[in-house]
Amino acid sequence: MVLRLAFQSFGVAYGDLGTSPLYVFSSTFPHGIHYSDEVMGALSLIIYTLTLIPLLKYVFVVLRANDNGEGGTFALYSLLCRHAKVNTIPNQHHTDEKLTTYSRQTIKDRSCAARTKKWLEANVYGQNALLLLVLVGTCMFIGDGIFTPAISVLSSVHGIKVQHHEMSTAVIVAIAVVILVILFSMQHYGTDKVGWLFAPVVFFWFLCIGSIGAYNICKHDPHVLKAFSPVYIVRYFRRGKKHSWASLGGIMLSITGTEALFADLGHFSTLPLQIAFTSVVFPCLLLQYLGQAAYLIHHQDDVTEAFYRSIPDLAYYPVFVIATLAAVVASQATISATFSIINQSVALGCFPRVKVLHTSNYLSGQIYIPEINWILMVLCIIVTICFNGTTQIGNAYGIAVITVMLVTTFLMALIMLVVWRSNWLLVLLFTSFFLIIELVYFSSMLFKVDQGGWVPLVIAFVSLIIMYTWHYGTGKKYEFEMETRVSMAWIVGLGPGLGLVRVPGIGLLYTELVNGVPRIFSHFITHLPAIHSIVVFVCVKYLPVNTVPQAERFLVRRIGPKDFHMFRCVVRYGYKDLHKKDDNFEKMLLDYLSMFIRNESLMDTFSDSEDYSLCEESQQEPTLDTENAHLMSLGMVSVESSQNLIVSEASPQQSGLPVRFGVSQIRTVDDDLRFLNDCRDAGVVHILGNTVVRARRESSLLKKIAIDYIYAFIQRICMENNVIFNVPHESVLNVGQVFYV
């Protein structure tokens, strides 16, 4: 099983890393090679870069920092959110920690981990800085989804000039654009039907480049093996100085795809990826770079087409075909990873709502986001046409890659301290060692900002504004809802009829709150004095876990006395969970509500102050405190909640004492279930808040721009909840309201 997963990982995790030899040397020496030792110095740098970052840092260390098998920037952030309260949207609840997937370790009070955790939880600026760090890494990873297809496809197609010298660059770019258009146009079909071809293609690609590399070593110059000595690195910098420093940007491209390796961890596990990298990927890449260097030492003028020029004539066309296929596979893997990380961003409230479609009935990770796909395609084509070559695309690509690696290093330092509870000296050694290496590469990339490196910076800046503004606006909207919750005392004072006409049917009122009655309810009944016989406040929220088991997803509680027929249903998802089109969300919700009513007699209270999970495997023993036991024996139910009690001026209760409602008629479980089924047959209406968020008049100019213009624009163009949950349009009732935050 492990070996099979290791083989399958070639088609998903290693395509991008495997196509790097197509453009590394041409990007390292864009102005040509001046002396043979320059090749040896660059080769030595490539060897140690591959050894230290992909092998040592990622394969042996970072892959272990997974969130229940999931990797990537948001997986690291999710781990930190569970072990320290750094989530900036306070919609978490203590019942979330009882999930089977909500695993975390206890921390000793006087440990370094405890001090770090305490500092993170107390420092708001530190939490915002951490969020910005995660968003920057995410934005740069999205940039990978633009540059990987562009440079991989263009580099593979560019090799045709080796046999067809008369072909112009414009024709090559046109061919690359056609391949890119076909690639992005086929995304909605998914990779389920052709995915089984990916692993053999990339595996055979690695065997080809390894064999060609060994052939060139034996044929041209076996002395390139001396490049394992770091002495050549010292000579390289001593002689080339600033020129050698600037060439690090091209050498860094030898490790592109390393972050995608970590992001794709969820498709496999740590051990298969380690086996595949150490046994095939790493040796074949080393052989290929050694072979290219051996060829270039004696053919320095061929540096712009080093890979294809070093191929034996008889093997040219087969390798050209395999290279093109490998480039397509590498592009496909990166595009799929981009879809996944954007889906995670949406789940954690850091990206506008977009429609996510499943392309496979069997593989949960196969998703397609139409809007993002076409945006990536347009940007990718613009980059390919405007840059008209791999050198400038490589400069842009390098900045995106090294920035994501820097973000991972910073996050790993916190993971090692807070989650792993490693010795602080070990954490300091790890962080400083890799930060020095990566900052050296990052500094060299700064020389390339005016040579194409500005593109990922612009893309990341625009993406960061969108993501942070959406997160900020969502947080302010939630804070406003928390501050304007309706008092439970006011609700109970209305009586069982709520002072309204109770029409047959069930009303599902969506809200962000996990406690209390939302403001939209009072707004609704004020303007339309009628409500359904059963009202369910539905809160759909995402947790900092990769998945929530189906049996633990729905959390149902009763609000107020039984005669009110008001409930709350909290629906919990992990950042990898998706709303499938064939999921009958409404049916599942009402089935769990029915189950709650059936099991309600076993629970200790009927108010919103307690939480009840319907996971049958974890049924709690019924426990009653003295006060509630006394109330229930008298046929009374306490509805006071310290969490939800926000007494409004319009409250009919002025004494401040617990509000109690006398039950005049005892209803059986069968009566309640029959009533639920009758209301269900009468119809279900989904009540959604069509909320407009505005900045208060006294707000700063920057806040007004962020809320009134940027957030408002994003909110208008993003998907509505009824589309995301696949609610029929005829069952939706929108309630307009304005929030001044």
Task: List its salient traits.
741 residues; 9% strand
Write a concise synopsis of the structure shown.
The chain has 741 residues and is of the alpha/beta class.
Structure in words:
The protein is about 55% helix and about 10% strand. It starts with a helix and ends with a strand. Strands 5-6-4-3-9-10 form a 6-stranded mixed beta sheet, sandwiched between helices. Strands 1-2 form a two-stranded antiparallel ribbon. A two-stranded antiparallel ribbon has the order 7-8. The longest helix is centred in the N-terminal third of the chain and has 35 residues, at about 125-160. Residues about 605-665 have low confidence and may be disordered. The protein is built from 27 helices and 10 strands. It has about 750 residues and is of the alpha/beta class. Helix 7 (about 125-160) runs antiparallel to helix 18, helix 8 packs antiparallel against helix 17 (about 370-385) and helix 9 (about 195-220) runs parallel beside helix 14 (about 270-300). A hairpin with a 6-residue loop joins strand 5 and strand 6.
SSE topology sketch:
Blueprint: H1 2-12, H2 15-18, H3 24-28, H4 36-59, H5 73-83, H6 112-122, H7 124-158, H8 169-185, H9 195-219, H10 231-240, H11 242-246, H12 248-251, H13 258-263, H14 270-298, H15 306-309, H16 316-347, E1 357-358, E2 367-368, H17 370-387, H18 390-419, H19 424-445, H20 454-483, H21 488-493, E3 501-510, H22 519-527, E4 530-542, E5 554-559, E6 566-573, H23 585-599, H24 626-633, E7 636-638, E8 660-662, H25 669-682, E9 684-694, H26 701-717, H27 721-724, E10 732-740
Parallel strand pairs: 3-4, 3-9, 4-6, 9-10
Antiparallel strand pairs: 1-2, 5-6, 7-8
Helix pairs in contact: 1-9, 1-14, 4-10, 4-14, 5-18, 6-18, 7-8, 7-16, 7-17, 7-18, 7-20, 8-17, 9-14, 9-16, 18-19, 18-20, 20-26, 23-25
